[in-house]
Amino acid sequence: MWELIRANKRKSFILISLMGTVLLLLGYVIGEFYSPGAGFGGMAIAFFVWAGLALLSYYSGDSILLMASKAKEVTHEVHPQLYNVVEEMKIAANLPKMPKIYIINEEAPNAFATGRSPDKAAVAVTAGLLSRLNRDELQGVIAHEIAHINNRDILYVTMSGVMLGAVVLISQVFLRSLWFTGGHSRRYRSRDRNGGGQAQMIMMVVAIAFAILAPIMAQLLYFALSRKREYLADATGARLTRYPEGLASALEKISKGNMQMKSANKVTAPMYIINPLADVKKQFSSWTSTHPPTEERIRILRNMMHGVNYKDYQDAYSKIKGKSDNVIPASGLKDQERIDTRTEGQPAEKTDDKKQKRDLGDLMRKLDQYAFIACACGLRMKVPPEYKKDKVKCPRCGKDNKVPPPELVATASAAAEAVDKSSRKK
Fold first, then answer.
1. Does the chain have fewer CB atoms within 10 Å around its N or its C terminus?
2. How far apart are the C-alpha atoms of 48 and 297, rounded to whole Å?
3. Which residues pair with 272 in a beta bridge?
4. Catalytic residue among 106, 145, 230, 245, which?
5. Integer Rg of the chain from CA
6. Helix (H) or strand (E) holding 163
7. Using CA atoms, how far apart are residues 102 and 78, in angstroms rounded to an integer?
8. pLDDT of 295 over the 80 cut
9. Residue ranges covered by each domain of the chain
């Protein structure tokens, strides 16, 4: 595993170095445009812009991403099954510390992982994901996200995303500045009067062309980085659960529904297990996507017939893609240990749309700090956080029920859920 992680780091370093070269060249060209001989000064400015953004993302990137996604940290009491599954996968992956767990108040099913290291990581899932997946499918998704943490993907994808942002930012500032300067710097205007207009025009064309092409080149490198990570995380996730069908079935369910998320944006979209901004049909065919085609990922997982080792995933990948190139680093393919697939999965349940909507609504209310109160008559009441009285009257039996204070809402809702389940069994 450590050799695999090292190989993964090497590939990441090469791609990020190429993105860095694009960034520095952009700074050089823009510097030369504004002041001949100032190209290295432009490179220095570009480097410092990236370094500032990189330091911010390294120390606060996870908090910023979670805040931008409107994710709320939850405990075992809010969703015991989710907490238990994350804990199982943390143990299976031998992570040094339990990742923090967040839920995003969105109906679209999706998930992502963030953080700079296995010691400081978080897993975020949407409420829609929790309401649609059974335990095996949820375990497959969490294993995929834990794999991103264990493979050191999240730091490299975040850092390369910041570098891409720096390239786009510098390009946009330069191109917009041309509107105000008319495409001429002060020094070049003086050169025009002295007969240097032709050289100035050539430099201007080169600078504009590179400012347009640089973000495209950086973005293509970022796409390549992201797609490779998804294949490797699928392979690692299947190995952790020993049940590829769980992740395959989860991806199938996620891709069939509405994937559009209000809280997602171009920065956070590549972090999710499936792109939350892409149209389903376009996502399957677009070579510029940050994610591999979902149908292809499902077929690869379902072709892991003989086991769940990395070599088994590589064999399935080669069969489906019809290519001999390795998506798994060579160090991962050296491990010939046989790891059998776990066959006993949770049987598929019939989809109950009404139950799914009810469960989704209840979970969203939990996140919004609703108090769930079970009356002695069996009625379950959902009290909004803005309700200020300390008692609420049951509309069925008329009995007054005490409303717990905000700090005890999570515990009260968990107790109410337990009472509700036991009453249904009776």
1. C
2. 39
3. 112
4. 145
5. 26
6. helix 153-181
7. 11
8. yes
9. 1-355, 369-425
| Three-class DSSP category at 392 | strand
- How crowded is residue 324: how many other Cβ atoms within 10 Å of its Cβ? 6
Helices (H), 259-352: 280-285, 294-302, 310-321, 330-333
Q: To 5 degrees, how large is the angle CA 378–CA 384–CA 390?
A: 75
Distance in angstroms (rounded) separating the CA atoms of residues 213 and 413 = 54
What span, in angstroms and rounded, lies between the C-alpha atoms of 77 and 322? Answer: 47
pLDDT for 112 equals: 92
Beta bridge partners of 112: 124, 272
Q: Nearest CA to 98 among 136, 151, 154, 149?
A: 149
Burial class (CB in 10 A: 0-12, 13-18, 19+), 378: middle
Residue 166's closest CA among 40, 267, 29?
267
How far apart CA 188 and CA 196 sit, in angstroms, is 8
| pLDDT-based confidence at residue 196 (cuts at 50, 70, 90) | low
Inter-residue contact 44 to 239 (CB < 8 Å): no
Using DSSP, state whether 265 is helix, strand or coil: coil
What pLDDT was estimated at residue 425? 43
Amino acid letter for position 210: F
- Write the secondary structure of 324-350 as one string of H (helix), E (strand) and C (coil): CCCCCCHHHHCCCCCCCCCCCCCCCCC
Q: What is the mean predicted confidence (pLDDT) over 233-252?
A: 93
Q: Is the pLDDT of residue 133 over 70?
A: yes
Retrieve residue 178's tokens: 């041309």
Instruction: Find tokens 């994808």 and name the residue.
Output: 157
Both tokens of residue 331?
Answer: 């160090």
The C-alpha atoms of residue 183 and residue 208 are separated, in whole angstroms, by: 9
Enumerate long-range contacts of 200-204, CB under 8 Å, 24 or more apart: 203/32, 203/33, 203/36, 204/33
Q: Specify the DSSP element, H or E, that contains 122.
A: strand 120-126
pLDDT at residue number 420:
44
Nearest by Cα to 71 from 10, 126, 148: 126
Q: In 3D, which of 214, 56, 248 has the Cα closest to residue 136?
A: 248
User: Which helix (H) or strand (E) element contains residue 23?
Assistant: helix 2-34
Task: Kindly state the average pLDDT of the residues 154-163.
Answer: 73
* Residue whose C-alpha is closest to residue 222's, from 161, 167, 264, 276: 161
Separation CA 168–CA 218 (nearest Å) = 9
Give the pLDDT confidence of 277-286 residue by residue, as tens digits.
Answer: 765 444 444 4
> Any catalytic annotation for residue 88?
no
pLDDT value at position 415? 44
pTM over 0.85: no
